[in-house]
Amino acid sequence: MTSSQETIETNRLVLRRWQDGDADSLYEYARDPAVGPIAGWPSHQSVEESREIIGTVFAAPETYAVCLKDDGRAIGAIALKFGDDADLADADDEAELGYWLGRPFWGRGIMSEASEAILRHAFEDLDLARVWPGYYEGNNRSWRVQEKCGFRYQRTCEGVDVPLMGERRTEHVSCITRKEWEQLSS
Asked: Residue 19 belongs to a domain with what CATH number?
């Protein structure tokens, strides 16, 4: 199931595997306190930390750098998470979707475009039945991406542990099935 493609292309984007050379770009956007903390992870403190994240967290299967086609620079991340790496997806034919985008690129439909490409990959190439994203209370931009992509609200969970931030939050969970995605895509 986790047969990562090297690249996935859209009209404006290339989703590709993270490379060690992306550390400077990752740090530029991941150090912004408006980006990571609302998604549940602390702002990066150094290029070295970003390089370590590339070699560990971003080395996972189905984890992609979101890059604009015109310059190839990594401006965000998107991933499908499975098994023990996923908090929301329980079955073998399901995945959890996670994503973030550098603040200079907000409001341009970039993450919706990337998410639509990942959904196509999830349902057509990986043969998944469901994809589950979540977002923490107050991250309305993330919810907007989910709405645009056809995800349907499923539940709200209070007191969810956010280990990287050392706190508990309210999380909203949504889902899209392959059948729902096919209806929206036709």
From this structure: 3.40.630.30
CA gap 71, 65 in Å, rounded: 13
3-state secondary structure 135-171: EECCCHHHHHHHHHCCCEEEEEEEEEEECCCCEEEEE
Considering the domain boundaries, does residue 67 fall inside one? yes
For residues 52 and 174, what is the distance between their CA atoms, to the nearest angstrom?
30
Q: For 90-113, how does the pLDDT look when each residue is reduced to its tens digit (9 = 90+)?
A: 899 999 999 999 999 999 999 999
| Parent domain of 148 | 7-185
> How many whole angstroms separate alpha carbon 79 and alpha carbon 125?
15
Q: Please tell me the total count of domains within the chain.
A: 1
Rounded Cα distance, 64 and 7, in Å: 8
Whole-model pTM: value is: 0.94
78 domain-assigned: yes
Residue count (the chain): 186
1 within domain boundaries? no
Query: Averaged over 152-169, what is the pLDDT?
Result: 96
What is the overall mean pLDDT for the chain? 95
